[in-house]
Structure formats: C-alpha cells, structure tokens
Design goal:
Elements lengths: L12 E8 L2 H14 E3 L14 E12 L5
Antiparallel strand pairs: 1-3, 2-3
Length: about 70
C-alpha cells in the first residue's frame, strides 16, 4: 500500500490511517486514541470495493492530552 503523504506544519500533529477487519474494531481504535491524545474524533469508516477490511483516518495532536487525561 502506498502511503498518502500529507505535510503538517506543526510539531506533534500526526495523521493516522487505520485499517481493520470490521467497523467496530476501527471505531474502538479511534476512541482509544481520542482518550490518549487530542484528536479529530471518531470519524467515518469506509469500505473500498474489492479490498478487505475497512479504513478510517484520524488527526491527532500527540503533544496535547486527550479527554481522559488530568
């Protein structure tokens, strides 16, 4: 799989592409990331015809704590 590169100008900001076997798994991963870091939230999950599994993208700021942090 060729990565879809995107430039992010600020340190600490990342784009994560998540691939999983089903929507529940991908949504659980996005929710866990949201608890750890400030993220764009649980977003849409897509299924590409002819490709196994489902995919989602989430944006995160790894320098800022998520909603569960003190």
């Amino acid at each position: 799989m060729k990565p879809n590169e995107q430039h992010i100008a600020e340190p600490g900001l990342v784009v994560l592409n998540i691939t999983g076997g089903d929507e529940d798994t991908v949504r659980a991963v996005m929710a866990a990331l949201e608890e750890r870091w400030a993220t764009s939230g649980v977003g849409p999950v897509r299924r590409d015809p002819g490709e196994p599994g489902v995919r989602a993208r989430i944006y995160a700021d790894v320098l800022r704590p998520g909603r569960e942090a003190p």
